[in-house]
Structures are given as structure tokens and as C-alpha cells.
Amino acid sequence: MHNNVGCCKKRKRGERVFKFKSFGHPGHPAADFDRPFHQNIRALLEFGHPEPSLLGGCLPCWSFQLEIHGNPPVIIYLYVVEEQIKSSSCRHCHHCRHIGWGHHMICNERFHFVLPSQKTAGLDFLDHDAHLMHGVMHSNGFGHLLRANGIEGGSEFISGHRIMDLWDRLCTGLKARKVSLTDVAKKASMELRLVHGIAYGEPWFGRWGYKFGRGSYGVTLQSYQKSIKAVRDLPLSLLGHNNNLRRADLSQTPIIISKYQTITAHPMHNLAQLFRCMLELKHRLPPDPIKFMDYHAISTEPACRWSPKRVEMAARVIVESLKKARFKWVSRQEVRDAARIYIGDTGLLDFVLKSLGDHVVGNHMVRRTVNPATKVLEYCLENVAFVAEMVEETAEGVVVEGRAAADEAEMVEGGDDERYVECACGARGDDGERMIGCDVCDVWQHTRCVGMSAGEDVPRMFLCARCERHLFAFPSVM
């Protein structure tokens, strides 16, 4: 059985299926891509299935079927869309301008690599933020990863780590020259660039070769490295004797530190060692045995008075209720209330909830635990493939020289309407953050730096502090 994700039309028999885990490696699909990017991408597309009607025929598009190992296996589709610049509504690339590549000559084509999710299937491929993955590569080999949404971002089958592995294999195999991204990766509410920066001195994306390129709000590489080092070297002894820790929500910090200190075999002295111990602890624990739900065995238990079919139906209803929580922990009462809409027999629900902990139902593992703070029983879903294949592999970035197929007209990606930026934070260029321009001097600044909140609308007229002072100094001008 194969679940069709990302495309609703019937596929032709005999169309080739590639393994998700190996797609992009040598031999999958081609033996080797040893030429510049603009030639390698053409070689890759020869293995794709043309999709003449997917985007209304306005843009050439190819698809690749990728199979994710599971029970049952899942088929997803990787789409490659070719965008011709001469017919594009947006000739310039603002991503290049933000990263500092605005001086690059405009190329003839851009190639979009899209892994659509179920809710984005059939929608605008090139302008949607809910895709599992969306990357764009210029034909000169420079590109941008626009988004990668794993389990936290709504993916039902693929973790963010595995999506990044796929993107890394594509970039490495096709001989991409340089690739940028905006690091906003989070785990729950934690910013991974901060957590991994403290633990390892590099962001979460560092395992795929990404490094600090251009900071927002005037942050330079030197100031970034200095700040990270200061936080990493923070002695744990200061956390244990800080007066601010007397607050109720932080009073347990010294106890938590001592618990981790007893677990590790090496003494911990600073915050970097503590964070690294926390992140690596899960990988040192023995893997949990995967137990599949055996409805016939459960129905033979003395406490069970329901048929295997009814037990299975109740289990699937509970899993569907947990899916709506997007892989977050939900209290037993909340799960029970949500399932009662479809299952009226509360005795059946109570029995299944009791039997469901750490068992596989369909493609998901149902986890159960007691919240240490509230002492309430909670449930959560984990993807089976994610649990079974959390094996980290070292990814290598390959940078090679490529010949840029630039447009004949002397035009650059940044365009000819460069903003003059002079912000209080030190920024002297467009970094992609929200900005506002002064209506008198036409100097641009970050909205955050002039005191505007993220949700506040930009006023119709704005004066910077300098122009405002000049106008008040010479009221006759007003």
C-alpha cells in the first residue's frame, strides 16, 4: 500500500520510484554529475516525469517519486520547476540582495525544488510557505533554501533532519556553488541556532556545512562569535548562586544542573558542556522497542469486552485526535474528550487509552508519560520512520567552480533600485528584515529599531529622528 502525498492525479504504470534516503547519491538517479550545475540539472531532469499540466503549462515542471520506508511505505513527490527569467514577473532576486550577492548577473533560469505537503498540493508552488521543502537554484550554481518544514512545521512523515539531508544531497550532487538560508529553525519554542550555538559553537544547520554569512540588524561575524563564546563560557557556578533564580520558575535550575552532573562521566563547568550533555543524552539511551498494536491479542484480555474491530477503530480515532495537536503532548482528558465525539462508549476509550502507550498504530508511535510538573498523564505522537532512523550522518559540502549562464543585458540580481540603509543598529544594507523609509531624506531603517512592534502597521508618513529634529529646529519650514 502506498499513500499518495502531494499529488492527487493517477500516476502511469512503470514510472520509476526512487528511495528517499538515497536520492541524490551517485547512481541515484545518475552515476555521477561531474559538470557545472547548469549542465548537471539538465542531466537530472532527464530522469524526471514531465508534468505539462501541473502548473497550467506556463512553466516546465518535472516530478520524481520518492519512497519513504515505513509500514506501509509512503510515496511523496519532488517537483523541479524551471522558471525562465525573460518571462518571469520578478526578474531580480531579493534573496541574493539580502545575502550580499546583489552584484551577481541575472541568470537565464531559476530552478525550484519543491516537496509539497498535503495541504499545499495543487496550490501555487512558487509562493507558499507550508511546503515541506522549497529551494531555488540559479543556473550559475548559487541558490537559496527558502523553507524546510519537518515534524514541527506540520510534516506527517519526514523530520527536518531528513529533509535537510535530501537538500544537501541535491546541492552536493548537482555541484551547487554556494547556498544561503535564513536560520529561523525551532524545536517547539526553542531557537536551534541559539541552543546548538551554545552546545557546539555552530548553528543546527552547521552539520550540513552552513556558516554565518550575513547577520541581520548590523550583527557582524566578529560580534556573533564573541557573543556565542561569552554565553558558552558562562560558569555553571554563577547559575547556582544567581539571585534572579529565586523566582519560582527558575528555582529548580541548580537541582537540574546537579542531576545532569551525576549522569555524565565528565565534570561540567560551563553552559556549553551542560547544553551538549542535554542534547546528546537521548542518543546515548538504549532505543525503545517498537511494539505494534495487536488488536486480537488485546481483545482476549480478561478486561476487554469489545471485538478487535471496535478496539482498532477506537485506537485510530485517538490517533487522529492526537494528529490535530501537531505532535505536541496532550493531556489524557483532552484526548478522551476529542475522541468521545466519535466514540460514545467511554469504557472502550478508557481501555484503549490504557493499552495504547508506546505502541504503533498505522504510521505513528503513541507515546505516554506523566507530566512531572502537573502529575497528569499525557499522550503524544511520533512518526515511526523518525523514531527508527534517527542515525546522524556526516554531510560534506562540495564547492566547485561553475560557468555562470548570465543574461546578455548587464543587469544584476539586486536590481538598480538599491535602498540607502543607515540604521541605529549599524546595518548599512538590506538584510531582509522589515524596514521603513523616511519620507524626507529617503534613508531606510528597521521598524524594530525605530520602536515599532512586529504587528504594528507602517504609518503612511514617517520621519526619521534626524529629520524630525531639523523640522522642529526650523519650524518655519513646516
Automatic annotation (TrEMBL):
One of its GO terms (molecular function) is zinc ion binding. The keyword Metal-binding applies. Keywords: Metal-binding, Zinc, Zinc-finger. This is PHD finger protein MALE STERILITY 1. CDD domains: PHD_MMD1_like (cd15556). Residues 422-468 form the Zinc finger PHD-type domain. It comes from Acorus gramineus. The keyword NAD does not apply. It comes from the Eukaryota. InterPro entries: WHD_PTC1, Zinc_finger_PHD-type_CS, Znf_FYVE_PHD, Znf_MS1-like, Znf_PHD, Znf_PHD-finger, Znf_RING/FYVE/PHD. PANTHER family: PHD FINGER PROTEIN MALE MEIOCYTE DEATH 1-RELATED, PHD FINGER PROTEIN MALE STERILITY 1.
